[in-house]
Amino acid sequence: MSVTRRQFLAGATGVAASTWLTGCGGFSKSSSDSSTSKKTVTFMTWASDAEASAFKRLASAFEAANSGVTVDLKIVPYAEMFTGVDAQLQAGTAPDVFRVDYPTMGLYSSTDQLLDLTGHLDSTLTSDFIPALYQAVQFDGKPYGVPHQTDTTCIVYQPAMLQAAGITSVPDSLGSAWSWSEFSDVANKLKASLGADVAPFAYDWQAAGAYRWLTWLFEAGGKLLESDLKTAAIVGAPGTKALEFTRSFFENEWVPKNTSIKGAYPDTVFISEKIAMSFVGDFLLPGIDDGVKNKFEWKATFQPQDARASSDLGGNALVATQQASDPDLAAEFLRFMVSADNMSAFCEEAVELPTLQSLVGEKLNYATRPDLMPIFAQQATTMTADDVAQVTVPFFGQINTLLADQLEQCFTSGQSVDDTLSNIANAVETAAKG
Questions:
Q1: CB burial of residue 229 (10 Å; 0-12, 13-18, 19+)
Q2: I want to staple 95 with a disulfide (CB 3.0 to 4.6 A). Which of 44, 88, 293, 380 is the partner?
Q3: Cβ neighbours of residue 14 closer than 8 Å, sequence gap 6 or more
Q4: Residue range 129-141, pLDDT digits in tens
Q5: Is the pTM of the predicted complex or chain greater than 0.90?
Q6: Nearest partner of 423 among 204, 408, 215, 433, judged by Cα
Q7: Helix axes 396-412, 417-432, angle to 10 degrees
Q8: CB atoms within 10 A of CB 52
Q9: Mapping DSSP to helix (H, G, I), strand (E, B) and coil, where does residue 128 land?
């Protein structure tokens, strides 16, 4: 069943920016509870520059709303985030609250590490969450986090490079998105037109984002797991088609030479004008805009589609640990972070998409490229509830790691498509058995 535009999210522009409010809509506790006096909430997260600014503002707003409470905000590099959290959980020194991406959520919710929020979230709040995303933070029917924001992938491009290659029409609606065949034609025209040191495009499956490759599998009409969410389903015609097509990116030299699944995100390559197009998540728009600094015009369009359109489940939840020094205060901080006013303000500054249905249809005043955000919002509606379920199983963190390894072997080391699909399937079923 598809997650409709109203069920999922909307991004648009127009109204004045929301202020950073201290209100706590949907809370089951009052933020003025005197029991919060002289206490600290430790909050650990990674963050882009825009996200860091937004988190700092919200932390200050929470402190202002709760006399005597301090938010100890610890911002760390993403590469260090979960090794740090894991070590601290083992040592008994874990933060009260931390950020976790949806595909990794199950690793924590299924291992008795997180605070069960059942008694801390009222129905007014939980019924407002986008259903698929609220499901993503649950394990055995219990919520172990709150969906804070989401993001997805579209294509950014330089119109001048496309026009020089004779590409004069770029999709301006989800229904007119390029087919895989049309996208191949675009890539071939760019390769023929661009200099030897400039590639047609770059992908965004790097490192922890390897799961974004599944978009192509879904577009081909395939799936990673059967409906039992334990049995591998990737071996078959759709899986073969998706893997062969994406391997052609490397065989046809459509992507930069020496590119790697385990490399860095492609936004810096786009900024350096070494590619004409790039698949990027909306959270990268502030960095791209800052890096380009009016050097060239850039726009965005939709992902290609085959048997269907699809997208990737980006974004993150916020969770409290069982080790939280004051579970009630930690839960109150989570509720504060996902109140409608604070969520919209965070998303506006960080250039991300909200997770509350009450914000669907609201025009957010995005700080960066508000003209492009409706494209990302529309693209996000193509991910179905079944797609979300496949990338949020408890063992998906293991799958994500093996995907990166197997895609690297297939794309850059000569491993066959059949062997790659078989290896992924075997690893999936091994991980599912625990």
A1: middle
A2: 44
A3: 363, 365
A4: 999 899 999 999 9
A5: no
A6: 408
A7: 170
A8: 15
A9: coil
